[in-house]
Amino acid sequence: MTDEAHRSQYDIFALNMRNALPRAAFIGFTGTPLMVGEEKTRQVFGDYISIYNFRQSVEDQNTVALYYENRIPEMQLTNDNLNQDMERLLEEAELDEEQEKKLEREFGREYHLITRDDRLEKIADDLVAHFAGRGYQGKAMVVSIDKATAVRMYDKVQKYWRRHLSDLRSKLAASTGEEREELAARLTYLEGTDMAVVVSESQNEAEDFKKKGLDIIKHRKRMKAEDLETQVK
Question: Can you give the pLDDT at residue 149?
C-alpha cells in the first residue's frame, strides 16, 4: 500500500471518529512519527503533549547508541539521460500501461545501480571485515532493498566469511603465546556465529527466486522450522 493510500485511509478513519464522537478527546501514540506529513497528524490530534526521543531512550539504556558511518561504495552513472532513453524506448515499443510499469520495475535506474553485483561484493566484504573487527561480541542485521538482494547478500557474506575464517586459521597456525590465545578465542567465536535469511513469504517464490539463480527453499524451511526471532534476541 502506498503512503498516499495510507493517508487516505487515515483521513477517512479520523473523520468518521470525529463524526461519531464529536465531544471526545483524541490522543494519538506513535513509535515512528513521519518527518513529512507531520502537519496532518497535528491537524487531527493537536500538538505533542509528550515526546520520548531517541536520545532519552539511549540515556535510559533502553536503546543502544546509533552511529552512522558512510561505508557505501561509490556509484557512478555514465549515462545522464538514462531515464529519457527509457521513456523513448517505451514509446517506440508501444507497450500497454501494465507492461510499462513492469518494465520500469525491472529496469529502474536506481535499483540496478544499488544491486549491481560488484557493488554487493564490496559491501559483503566490508560487512565481514566490520563485524569481525568491531571489537566486541554481539549481533548484527543487514537490511536489503528487496528479498532477492537479501538472499544474494547472504550468499556473498558467506563467501567472504569462509575466506576470513581461513585467513584466521592460517594466522593461528603461525602464531605463538598471547597472540595465539587471542586468535584462537576469536576464531572459536566466529566459527560459532550463525546467519539466517528472514523475508516474508510470497506465492510462487521458489520459482521466482530460481529464475534469478537463487535458492529460497532452504531458507524458507529454516524460517518455518525455527523460531529465528527468539534465537536472535
Answer: 93
pLDDT of residue 33 exceeding 50:
yes
State the Cα angle at 43 between 37 and 47, rounded to 5°: 95
Between 143 and 1, name the one with better pLDDT.
143
pLDDT bucket at 1, cuts 50 / 70 / 90: very low
Return d(Cα 112, Cα 82) in angstroms, integer. Answer: 12
- Grid cell 595465539 in the structure block, residue: 180
Distance between CA atoms of residues 140 and 128, nearest Å: 11
**Percent of the chain, pLDDT > 70?**
72
* For residue 66, pLDDT beyond 80: no
Quickly list DSSP for 34-95.
-STTHHHHHHHH-S-S----HHHHHHTTSS--------PPP---S-TTHHHHHHHHHHHHT-
Alpha carbons 165 and 200: distance in angstroms, whole number: 31
Percent helix / strand / coil, the chain, rounded to 5: 60, 0, 40
- 180-197 confidence digits (pLDDT tens): 999 999 999 999 999 999
The three cell numbers of residue 144 are: 536489503
Burial class (CB in 10 A: 0-12, 13-18, 19+), 25: exposed
Set of cell numbers at residue 11: 483521513
